[in-house]
Amino acid sequence: MMDIEQVERVVKLVERSQLHEMTIANNGQSITVVNNVASQNSGYPTEAILTHESKEANNVVLEVCATYVGNVYLSEDDTTENLVHEGDSIEKGQTICFIKELTRLLPVISDKAGIVDTILVKNGQNIEYGQPILKLKSSTYS
Predict the structure, then answer these.
(1) 49 - beta bridge partners?
(2) Quick one: CA dihedral 100, 105, 109, 115, positive or negative?
(3) Of 50, 99, 107, 135, whose CB has the highest number of CB atoms within 10 Å?
(4) pLDDT tens readout for residues 96-128
């Protein structure tokens, strides 16, 4: 059985390496560690990645996706309001949510401006790397 110290050592090794992704399996358990190479030299916060772009009428639909594996939180804590709501206008560089990865709460930063069309996750939900968090609508490419 893998313990948390082993997992932390693997995460630290992958963070310092040039590896993009590493999966370790042990006795029926497995863990995948993903190194976001684009943010490797910049530290925190990590920018959200664009994974889908399509034209609908005169609007561009963008998906903002998870940059880490963990639990997604739409607000900084249980007492504050969600950072974004459907219909909100967001700007490039705005924090849209947080992902709790092991013991760290990491911000997800939008790399696009637009209007939040749909929030695709629920507060506290497990999320995988690259999984869409929300859809944005924009009348122009940003």
Answers:
(1) 65
(2) positive
(3) 99
(4) 999 998 888 899 988 788 899 999 999 999 998
Percent of the chain with pLDDT over 70: 70
Assigned token pair, 18? 């040039």
Least confident of 11-15, 55-59, 115-119, 121-125: 55-59
Question: 131 in helix, strand or coil?
Answer: coil
Question: Rounded CA gap, 112 and 49, in Å?
Answer: 9
CA angle 39, 118, 65 (to 5 degrees): 20
Q: Which two tokens stand for residue 78?
A: 């249980």
Residues in the chain: 142
**Residues contacting 43, CB < 8 A, separation 6+:** none
Contacts for 55 with CB less than 8 Å, ≥ 6 apart: 61
